[in-house]
Specification:
- The chain has 283 residues and is mainly alpha-helical.
- The protein has one domain.
- It is built from eleven helices and no strands.
- The longest helix has 33 residues.
- It is globular.
Length: 283
């Protein structure tokens, strides 16, 4: 007889999914994901054709409004689907420390392998324009605030809610992260998006609050914006990587990865420990 090795909060091996009233199913998850892909394909061109950068901010809103409208139409419980719960300060701080650590790890790895990755001309140029825009407010809204809010409502809200009641905890986190990475449509950087998304999905499950991954997502994107816009003298800047001392870049990359691993470990322990206390699982 096969042993049940499911961890806490996971569906035991072989157990059939349970339909939870008022919550999305896997079919709902697939339908919304297809609708979002269609939205990216068609609405993206529409917003670009308008030519107004401020109006183009509304494009990101569609990622959250689609699952929100669908949930209203289906009569789902919005607070349950989108995990609208106030997190503890400890969980929030832990999430920030965790994602800063993940950012450091990703930045360190990218500084070494980045020059060898294929370029995505359209995506890279659009991102560069947004980062270097003369309006600081626009750049922060376009790169950090709006994606953090609306992508998390979709991924760590609707998609994760549907997956958690269909598959095991680990599978739900992995599948949600994969869907998140595929949504960015950049194969060369998909592994790095997956790493960040994995931290976001895990924190969302541990804290059972959408606000923690939103804060983490904003922090990650803001660090990316700040490094690219203001970090031209850093050893991991594009200019330093292409023209500077490669060994200096490698040394700095190793430091980043080591510091990032330490921060990620500390952040994860804060998030995990608080989640256990809140659920009564602490020793």
């Amino acid at each position: 007889m096969m042993e049940n090795d499911a961890g806490p909060g996971e569906r035991p091996f072989g157990e059939k999914p349970v339909r939870i009233p008022g919550m999305p199913t896997v079919i709902d998850v697939l339908l919304i994901y297809i609708l979002v892909l269609a939205y990216i394909a068609y609405a993206g061109y529409g917003f670009k054709a308008v030519g107004n950068k401020w109006l183009s901010l509304c494009f990101s809103a569609g990622f959250g409004l689609l699952p929100f409208a669908y949930s209203l139409f289906r009569g789902f419980g919005l607070r349950a689907v989108f995990a609208v719960r106030r997190p503890s300060p400890r969980s929030s701080i832990g999430g920030i420390v965790l994602i800063v650590g993940v950012f450091s790890i990703v930045a360190g790895i990218l500084s070494v392998v980045g020059p060898y990755l294929p370029k995505n001309g359209i995506s890279d140029s659009t991102l560069q324009v947004q980062i270097m825009d003369e309006s600081f407010l626009y750049s922060v809204l376009a790169l950090a605030a709006f994606p953090a809010i609306f992508e998390e409502l979709l991924c760590r809200g609707f998609l994760l809610a549907g997956l958690r009641h269909a598959v095991s905890r680990r599978a739900a986190i992995s599948l949600c992260t994969l869907l998140f990475a595929l949504l960015h449509m950049d194969p060369a950087r998909m592994p790095f998006t997956f790493i960040a998304g994995l931290a976001l999905s895990w924190a969302a499950v541990e804290t059972e609050s959408i606000f923690v991954p939103i804060i983490m997502h904003f922090t990650y994107n803001f660090f990316l914006f700040a490094v690219v816009r203001y970090g031209k003298t850093l050893p991991i800047s594009a200019a330093a990587i292409e023209t500077g001392d490669k060994y200096a870049v490698y040394r700095f990359a190793v430091i980043l990865v080591c510091v990032g691993a330490l921060l990620a470990s500390v952040g994860a322990s804060l998030v995990r420990r608080r989640a256990k206390i809140a659920t009564g699982d602490a020793p």
